[in-house]
Design a protein that fits this description.
CATH architecture of chain A: Up-down Bundle
Number of helices of chain C: 10
Number of strands of chain C: 0
Structural class of chain C: mainly alpha
Shape of chain A: globular
CATH class of chain A: Mainly Alpha
Oligomer: heterotrimer
Helix content of chain A: over 70%
Number of domains of chain A: 1
Radius of gyration of chain A: 20 Å
Chains: A mainly alpha, B mainly alpha, C mainly alpha
Number of domains of chain C: 1
Structural class of chain A: mainly alpha
Radius of gyration of chain C: 18 Å
Largest interface: A-B, 38 and 28 residues
Order of helices and strands of chain A: HHHHHHHH
Chain lengths: 247, 55, 223
């Protein structure tokens, strides 16, 4: 396997150039997928036979939850890369992805709560899924808080990397214990998203929305990373030239 | 007209569906616009600094 | 290797006995938090019994966290932590000794104290051994996980609240399993499964946490 791309990733300039080329494509794809997916999901997908139209919240709740969870995994991967290969770009990715992940968790929680009102009759139920998302939000807050508390840039990056790895080891344990706790205390609650078989007209827009969320997540991440790279490399020549061209 | 309001009302669930979509749209837009604004600020600051240096 | 472990242990022991207040404070805090609940919700025995496992476990969580805040601080400030990092002995082993010593001073005392508070919260006598057993298995996990947070925040001034923010979410499985075991015991159901799970987590924490603590300390000291 050719590993040169991996070593090139260590160069901020190379990343800045290549991400600048990718960014518009991701942006166009993300917006298109989201527009098509939400129009399809809102107006053309059939109603759910039990929940009626409130079921359409699934088209944002589930993608947001997906992105939120995989973003935490990404933090841990970036943490490993940063600790093992000392790649500065991994530090940047770790720092920039955490707030986006927290926002996605927030969206998943809020839409879950809003969905709960027509489904359960109340905004908050200690449902396993929602509780896990709440804990995930706290984990994100921990990472962001630790990153901000340490003033030295390199130390802060390493410390958050360790915390992300520890958190990722713990996530499956937390997830299973919360699931189990839920079955212990609330037997047979009405599961919202666990459908045995979703018809194609229902899950196809969901797929589009998931892809769209991932694309937009990438756009936001790349934009933040590019900004952070410019800030960190402000003293170098190529950044000065780039900034000159931009203004 | 009637069919449009039916479509937006979603059988009484419209308020929940539309508020979730609005919040999500807001958060997604925020996550894209905020780095964009910060980038513009950086570019402007740099330009101002360079002008000062030239003078 | 055995010698260094023993020497470290004796050092920790001597240090701890020079300041007995530090040992006592978490226990008093634990007792205080537990006593607050009857005052807050009323002395109704049936309600207290239903709440007792949760109250005792949350109090144990908070007391452990509070006592861990200063775990590495004095060593960091007087420079001995740097010597630890530089020494040829494995850092993970040394921090393991330190954390286990800390657990013996705080966690073990809580294990011994908890049945007393269980009685005061109207728990039946038969459930008290289960309470002590689950705490015995659970508190080492709390100490080890908390020490990871303490290592990561070692050089920081505002350590306390940040430590709670980092570590409390990671305590959730222990809390769920511990209170679950107590609930099962109160309903007369078997608790072996819970105890095995807690033991499993304890072994996991015992093997993995020292590595993370050592990594955290290396980062903190290098600053």
């Amino acid at each position: 396997m050719n590993w040169s791309f991996f070593h090139k990733l260590g160069s901020p300039k190379w990343f800045y150039d290549i991400s600048g080329r990718w960014l518009p494509w991701f942006a166009v794809a993300g917006v298109a997928l989201l527009v098509v997916g939400s129009i399809w999901g809102l107006f053309f997908a059939p109603q759910d036979y039990q929940q009626g139209n409130s079921f359409r919240i699934i088209y944002i709740h589930v993608p947001a939850a997906f992105v939120a969870q995989s973003c935490y995994m990404m933090l841990a991967v970036a943490g490993v890369v940063s600790l093992v290969w000392r790649m500065k770009l991994a530090d940047v990715a770790l720092k920039c992805a955490a707030p986006i992940g927290a926002w996605m968790t927030f969206v998943a929680l809020l839409t879950g709560a809003i969905w709960g009102k027509p489904t359960w009759g109340t905004y908050w139920v200690w449902d396993a899924r929602l509780t896990s998302m709440l804990i995930l939000l706290f984990l994100y807050f921990g990472i962001i808080a630790l990153g901000q508390a340490i003033s030295n840039r390199e130390t802060s990056a390493k410390a958050t990397a360790v915390l992300a790895i520890v958190g990722t080891v713990n996530i499956p344990i937390i997830k299973y214990s919360v699931d189990w706790w839920n079955t212990l205390h609330q037997p047979a609650t009405f599961k919202v998203t666990a459908k045995p078989a979703m018809p194609v007209e229902m899950w196809l827009p969901l797929l589009l929305m998931v892809l769209g969320f991932y694309a937009l997540f990438t756009v936001s991440l790349l934009m933040r990373m590019r900004l952070e790279v410019l800030r960190r490399e402000q003293k170098t020549r190529w950044v000065r030239e780039t900034l000159e061209k931009l203004s | 007209m009637n069919s449009l309001s039916d479509m937006l009302g979603m059988g009484g669930h419209g308020i929940y569906v539309w508020s979730s979509y609005a919040i999500t749209l807001f958060v997604l837009a925020l996550n894209v616009v905020q780095p964009w604004l910060a980038r513009r600020r950086l570019v402007n600051e740099e330009a101002r600094r360079r002008r000062r240096e030239v003078m | 290797m055995r010698q260094i472990v023993w020497l470290l242990f004796c050092r920790e022991w001597r240090l701890a006995w020079r300041r007995p207040g530090d040992l006592l404070n978490p226990l008093v805090f634990f007792a205080l938090v537990v006593s607050l609940f009857p005052l807050a919700v009323g002395p109704e025995p049936s309600m207290l019994r239903a709440m007792a496992p949760g109250v005792i476990w949350v109090a144990a969580l908070l007391a452990t966290l509070l006592s861990l805040d200063g775990l590495f601080r004095s060593d960091y400030e007087d420079g001995s932590l740097e010597q630890w990092v530089l020494s040829p002995h494995p850092l993970a082993l040394m921090v393991l000794v330190k954390v286990l010593h800390h657990w013996m001073m705080s966690g073990l005392a809580m294990v011994l104290l908890a049945p007393l508070f269980g009685l005061m919260l109207a728990l039946p006598l038969s459930s008290l051994p289960v309470l002590a057993l689950t705490l015995l298995l659970g508190t080492p996990i709390l100490s080890l996980l908390g020490a990871v947070g303490a290592a990561l925040t070692v050089g920081l001034k505002s350590g306390g609240v940040l430590l709670a923010l980092l570590i409390l979410p990671l305590y959730i499985p222990v809390l769920i399993l511990g209170t679950g075991a107590m609930d099962a015991a109160l309903q007369g159901m078997p608790v072996t499964g819970f105890a095995l799970w807690l033991g499993c987590l304890a072994v996991l924490a015992l093997t993995l946490a020292p590595i993370a603590i050592a990594a955290g300390l290396r980062i903190g000291v290098s600053e």
